[in-house]
What does this fold into?
Amino acid sequence: MSEHDQREDYDDDPNRGALAPAHIVLWPSSIMWAFGLLQLNFAQLAAAFLIVLVILSILDGHTSLTESLQEMTKPDGLLVIILWLATTAGCIIVIRGSNDLRRFRRYP
It folds into this structure.
């Protein structure tokens, strides 16, 4: 009886070479892209929701356009606008980075 165990031959396929680097990063870059797009959509929906609330309050007569603009220029309103812009920029960076990763650009 020989000492060779055929169960250990599962990875001895000579036609099966090493995986290409593009194949290795395909799934992680696709997942990064999907989550970046999802976050970008949520950020834009939140901004749209706030804009709709301001428009509805103007249409209902609770505030005027000048009062709404004055509220937006207060520190809280400016903070919301700055955070929205920063979140949007961050999501775009993640999406572009995942595309660059998939194409091996800027990735040593």
Remarks:
- The mean pLDDT is 82.
- The chain has four helices and no strands.
